[in-house]
């Protein structure tokens, strides 16, 4: 029968488990408890990010739909939101259209929602198909003129700083990606919790209150082994 250290090493790998051993001051059993605790915190943070993601994409969709009086994912709307913009790619030494990725993401979402039974994709399905990375990219500086100023700023409180909003969303996306790849959030849980709460309040104070009331993040953080 394998020793405890042997099966843990085979399960997690020595490199992965070493992070928890260091955090536990070399205490093997505390490190294992930390690993399980981290999994619970990750699941709780991911749940709250999911609430934020749905709120974000719906508020962005409402603002864009109001601005275009229809389906902003189709026709010339994409060229207005994400116009062709050629820039020199320094590593490759070639010019490329830096707005093409967003147009491609929307087109891919439309294609995935199109079939013989549904030749005209349902708008709501397209919105749901677009990934978190797409929605957070809308707040980047390159889209300030085309997306933020005419449309998205209307979805947020007066005086909202787009740059700060973009930075916060980038941080949350990084935490989300770490969780998706089963990395640790040993020191990032508190910051992520505050950022999610702050953004939710900007989008919907009522949804923010519900998320805070039902979230398990704070109670889990207090129970850190």
Provide structural commentary.
The chain has helices spanning 4-12, 14-23, 28-68, 77-81, 100-112, 123-129, 132-137, 144-148, 162-180, 189-203, 205-214, 217-222; strands at 86-89, 94-97. With 225 residues, the protein is mainly α. A hairpin with a 4-residue loop joins strand 1 and strand 2.
Provide keyphrases for this structure.
225 residues; mainly alpha; two-stranded antiparallel sheet; globular
Task: Describe the secondary structure blueprint for this structure.
Blueprint: H1 4-12, H2 14-23, H3 28-68, H4 77-81, E1 86-89, E2 94-97, H5 100-112, H6 123-129, H7 132-137, H8 144-148, H9 162-180, H10 189-203, H11 205-214, H12 217-222
Antiparallel strand pairs: 1-2
Helix pairs in contact: 1-2, 2-3, 3-10, 5-6, 9-10, 10-11
């Amino acid at each position: 029968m394998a020793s405890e250290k042997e099966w843990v090493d085979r399960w997690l790998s020595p490199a992965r488990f070493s992070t928890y051993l260091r955090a536990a001051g070399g205490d093997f059993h505390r490190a294992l408890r930390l690993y399980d605790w981290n999994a619970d915190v990750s699941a709780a943070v991911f749940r709250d990010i999911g609430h934020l993601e749905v709120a974000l994409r719906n508020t962005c969709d409402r603002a864009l739909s109001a601005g275009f009086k229809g389906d902003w994912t189709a026709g010339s709307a994409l060229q207005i939101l994400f116009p062709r913009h050629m820039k020199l790619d320094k590593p490759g030494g070639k010019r490329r259209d830096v707005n093409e990725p967003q147009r491609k993401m929307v087109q891919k979402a439309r294609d995935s929602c199109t079939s013989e039974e549904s030749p005209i994709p349902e708008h709501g399905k397209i919105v749901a198909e677009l990934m978190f990375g797409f929605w957070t990219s809308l707040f980047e500086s390159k889209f300030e003129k085309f997306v933020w100023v005419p449309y998205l700023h209307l979805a947020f409180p007066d005086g909202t700083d787009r740059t700060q909003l973009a930075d916060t969303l980038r941080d949350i996306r990084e935490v989300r990606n770490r969780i998706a790849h089963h990395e640790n959030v040993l020191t990032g849980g508190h910051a992520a919790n505050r950022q999610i709460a702050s953004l939710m309040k900007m989008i919907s104070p009522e949804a923010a209150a519900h998320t805070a009331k039902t979230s398990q993040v704070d109670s889990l953080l207090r129970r850190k082994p």
